Amino acid sequence: xxxxxxxxGLPRINEPAPAFDAPTTDGRKTLEDYRxxxxxxxxxxxxxxxxxxxxxxxxxxxxxxxxxxNCELLGLSIDSNHSHIAWMRNIEEKFGVPIPxxxxxxxxxxxxxxxxxxxxxxxxxxxVRATFLIDPEGMLRAMVYYPMSNGRSIDEFLRLLxxxxxxxxxxxxxxxxxxxxDRVIVPPASTAEAANDRMHDETMECVDFxxxxxxx
Length: 216
Hints:
Elements: E1 21-22, E2 29-30, E3 38-43, H1 50-68, E4 71-77, H2 81-95, E5 103-105, H3 110-114, E6 129-134, E7 140-146, H4 154-170, E8 184-186, H5 192-198, E9 205-208, E10 211-214
């Protein structure tokens, strides 16, 4: 018997994020509802599972930091709204952590398929730990996948959001492990004259014409 193909391919960075219109614990939500804000859309394999519980508590505790960056949070799993609500109440009761963001009830797997969250070889038809950063124009800017057995670092998504916003605002790149306050990378020169000029630019530190950094 042939198995059902649950994937539709992965969405691509710097292209429009797949649109959705889905039921959540806060009522129906669409991608357009988040226009003008950044959005972190993240999936988890199942409610009432220990690794997912630690992630949801970490996202909940960091929610004010995301809000400070004009960023909303939106969870997803292939569970019902009743299951989501019961799990949210359980987390608050057992761990003292209220969940302040909505969770998509993706029972038909429409959103999971559109975003390539279903990886049957990873286990079953549950959504893997996928995380998508979508900008205020609805463009997909980053996506990260984790295995079902290992939890994400929410601090890394805050760091990545800072880096993306800094690159957009200042037209720069950021090096490995960059955090606000660190030096940024100036885009490589596109002409020989510009390459020569930057070697004498006191606002930059240049190791060579292609590798220059500066402070913001």
